[in-house]
Amino acid sequence: MSVKPNKAMVLAAGLGVRMRPLTDHLPKPLVRVAGRALLDHVLDKLRDAGVSEAVVNVHYLPDQIIDHVAARARPRVIISDERDEVLGTGGGVVKALPLLGPAPFFLVNADTMWIDGVRPNLARLAETFDPARMDILLLMAPTTSSIGYGGRGDYAMLPDGALRKRREHQVVPFVYAGAAIMSPSLFADAPSGEFSLTKMFDRANEQERLFGLRLDGVWMHVGTPDAVHAAEEAFLQSVA
């Protein structure tokens, strides 16, 4: 069973500390890569996946993001304003749930960037997501072929896509690429206030309802100013 999400949550409220000095006066989602803001790259992919409404949360330099998306028609952007509070990634989603509705939705980090392979990865996520077995389906990038990533990975993946979280001293082959499909029912008894989405990932993992899909293409970890240039080179080569 697959789904066709027509709504998405875009996480755009972060401080972008590691991207300084580029983010001293600019929110990280508006940092430009290959001539377009990171946020626009994400919204374009959501549009192409059939998303009609994207909820974008804002906190740091919020008016810049609000002004930037004001003219966009597809997807229509709804702002979830967190300028007066710090909610974290999990608390941000909880606040936006009334805007997202009862059906599974895409969750995308505003600063994630990837080059699709033969088929768009968001469409592949929608085809793979099975609400009967899954609460969360994460897009997982192989660490060895990702650009700008030097960590130990996040999860190992079983043949059926089930994920197993990396233990402290392990090295695992997959890193979360910043895009997912989630069932809102997962948040039925979520904490209030500030918390990380990792808490929800762990909860789904404990119940064996956390799955992953291997990214087809190349994921770019645009976490620092140096990584912007590497991402631009890879993106421009892909469209040449």
Automatic annotation (TrEMBL):
List the InterPro entries: GlmU-like (IPR050065), MobA-like_NTP_Trfase (IPR025877), Nucleotide-diphossugar_trans (IPR029044)
Q: Name one GO molecular function term.
A: nucleotidyltransferase activity
According to the entry, every stretch annotated as the MobA-like NTP transferase domain falls at 8-137
Superkingdom of the source?
Answer: Bacteria
> CDD domains attached here?
NTP_transferase_like_1 (cd06422)
Q: Which UniProt keywords are present, listed alphabetically? A: Magnesium, Nucleotidyltransferase, Transferase
> Which residues are the signal sequence here?
none
Protein name from the UniProt record: MurNAc alpha-1-phosphate uridylyltransferase
Which species? Answer: Bradyrhizobium erythrophlei
